[in-house]
Design a protein that fits this description.
This protein is mainly beta. It has one helix at residues 2-18, and strands spanning 39-46, 49-63, 66-75, 78-87, 90-96, 99-109, 117-124, 127-143, 146-159, 162-171, 175-183, 186-196.
């Protein structure tokens, strides 16, 4: 039972990086700042059990004409690496737990348009998957880290025999601040506890 719960928490933590992430040109608002040293701390509650999860940008490099960021997520003593990129067209996933995604998934289309839906078909190690996303709305949300005016994006992922649904709140210049998800029947929430840019430590 413990091993099963631990595995679910790991999956939940991965959603932090997997879920649709918003971004825009630097001259405007950015909904996920991908700069080295930026760090997010979340509190995940799944079936009454809570766990702290941290995610940090450790590297940014050029790939396919884009700046691709490597993020490390720490949960339950494990460190999981993800690669993401964002530009004026949206956000793209390049890898999942260090495994390349083919083709890179367009997780978000920009500019944000309420009610817009899109699909992403991709393969991981030769296995085919599909995800459907929708730009929902804007609203004010309060989490441990503070109060934010956020935009909401929902997604539904078919991962083999398991279906995952998640609704994410994204705040300007901060990133994901809240998520409500269902992992094949196991539901839970994730809320931002702290966001650090590196300047906080100076």
């Amino acid at each position: 039972m413990f091993a099963s719960r631990s595995r679910i928490f790991v999956i939940a933590a991965l959603l932090l990086a997997w879920s649709p992430l918003l971004s825009a040109q630097e001259k405007t608002t950015t909904y996920l700042p991908l700069k080295v040293g930026y760090k997010w701390t979340f509190k995940i509650d799944l079936g009454g059990q809570a766990v702290d999860v941290s995610q940090k940008v450790v590297k940014v490099e050029k790939k396919d004409g884009r700046e691709v960021a490597t993020l490390e997520t720490e949960v339950g003593g494990q460190t999981l690496a993800e690669q993401m990129a964002s530009d004026e067209r949206g956000v793209f996933r390049y890898s999942f737990q260090g495994v390349p995604v083919d083709p890179p998934i367009q997780a978000l289309k920009l500019p944000f348009k309420k009610g817009e839906t899109w699909e992403a078909k991709f393969s991981v190690q030769g296995q085919e998957f599909k995800s459907t996303m929708k730009s929902e709305a804007e609203e004010e949300v309060t989490v441990p880290a503070g109060k934010y005016k956020a935009v909401i994006v929902s997604s539904q992922m078919d991962l083999g025999a398991q279906q995952i649904t998640v609704k994410s709140w994204f705040a300007p210049n901060v990133g994901i601040v809240k998520q409500v998800f269902d992992l094949g029947g196991a539901s839970g929430t994730s809320e931002l506890v702290k966001f650090e840019t590196g300047a906080d430590k100076k």
